């Protein structure tokens, strides 16, 4: 009985000491930049095409040219090719970069104000400090309900703004967002590039700047990503390769060695299948001559970072761009 009471008291103390969304939001505002109120309706829609054309209808689990790369276990969605997501750049300068994404996981009509998830990544270009915010629709996901994206409040807003929901109820708790371990996919930097998001041109980039998740107790527990490279590597002359999802999945998806879920036949054919480097103008033979060996070397170092040819570095300091 005493143990049970002690466990309950410890649990209550943990909840009481947990960081609130407004506390985390204020820490982000202080160390990165204030995040403004915004509307998802101002975002750039993410096109979903099939064989280069917008289909007449969208169906669950359909295939498309540039599917979303986000896969979630235990969440019933309509697949990787759901239309009407929107991307926004709220700030992009030499001090801060703030990106918002209003994501659809269920098929809804065009012009809808409902979304299944709203995400923000805020990044200090000078220090590398990065913070993460997420608002989620209730489970199970349904097309007739979701997060209202018309009035998105600043996550540090203690006093409710007129016409906006309270930040405390709109945004997920920091511990809930941190549980998603966003860094596992965002391991090469704060902003993850893919053909899906690249269509909008609404994505900041800081491939060589410092990057760290030191704001918020829950995010400090994330594993620290490392950059994997080799001397003279053609791939890492443009950006880093992180040692998590980039090493294990994204590198192979971007070079035609692994088919992304949701990808149609058009997307598996060269040059669409090789979406790194962006704007690929090579022939397939030229691409192989320039990049294939570099990919093989990186793959080997991802498996054994202590190999003799491998270079491993952290992101806490600005990187010097390697020379090919």
TrEMBL record:
<dbReference type="InterPro" id="IPR036280">
    <property type="entry name" value="Multihaem_cyt_sf"/>
</dbReference>
<feature type="signal peptide">
    <location>
        <begin position="1"/>
        <end position="18"/>
    </location>
</feature>
<keyword id="KW-0732">Signal</keyword>
<protein>
    <recommendedName>
        <fullName>Cytochrome c family protein</fullName>
    </recommendedName>
</protein>
């Amino acid at each position: 009985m005493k143990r049970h009471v002690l466990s309950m008291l410890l649990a209550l103390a943990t909840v009481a000491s947990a960081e609130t969304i407004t506390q985390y939001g204020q820490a982000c505002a202080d160390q990165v930049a204030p995040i403004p109120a915004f509307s998802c309706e101002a975002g750039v829609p993410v096109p979903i095409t099939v064989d280069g054309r917008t289909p007449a209808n969208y169906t669950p689990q359909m295939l498309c040219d540039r599917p979303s790369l986000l896969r979630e276990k235990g969440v019933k969605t309509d697949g990787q090719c759901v239309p009407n997501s929107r991307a926004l750049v709220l700030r992009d300068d030499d001090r801060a970069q703030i990106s918002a994404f209003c994501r659809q996981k269920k098929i809804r009509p065009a012009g809808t104000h409902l979304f299944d998830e709203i995400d923000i990544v805020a990044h200090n270009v000078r220090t590398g400090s990065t913070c993460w915010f997420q608002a989620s629709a209730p489970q199970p996901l349904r097309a007739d309900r979701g997060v209202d994206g018309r009035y998105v409040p600043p996550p540090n807003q203690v006093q409710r703004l007129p016409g906006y929901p309270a930040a405390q109820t709109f945004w997920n708790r920091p511990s809930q967002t941190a549980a998603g371990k966003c860094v596992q996919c965002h391991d090469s930097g704060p902003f993850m590039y893919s053909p899906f998001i690249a269509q909008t041109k609404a994505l900041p980039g800081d491939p060589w700047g410092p990057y760290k998740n030191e704001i918020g107790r829950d995010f400090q527990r994330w594993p620290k990503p490392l950059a994997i490279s080799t001397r003279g590597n053609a791939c890492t002359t443009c950006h880093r390769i992180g040692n998590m999802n980039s090493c294990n999945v994204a590198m192979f998806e971007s070079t035609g060695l692994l088919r992304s879920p949701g990808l149609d036949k058009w997307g598996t054919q060269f040059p669409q299948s090789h979406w790194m480097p962006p704007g690929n103008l090579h022939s397939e033979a030229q691409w192989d001559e320039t990049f294939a060996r570099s990919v093989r070397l990186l793959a080997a170092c991802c498996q054994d970072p202590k190999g003799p040819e491998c270079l491993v570095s952290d992101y806490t300091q600005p990187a010097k761009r390697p020379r090919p």
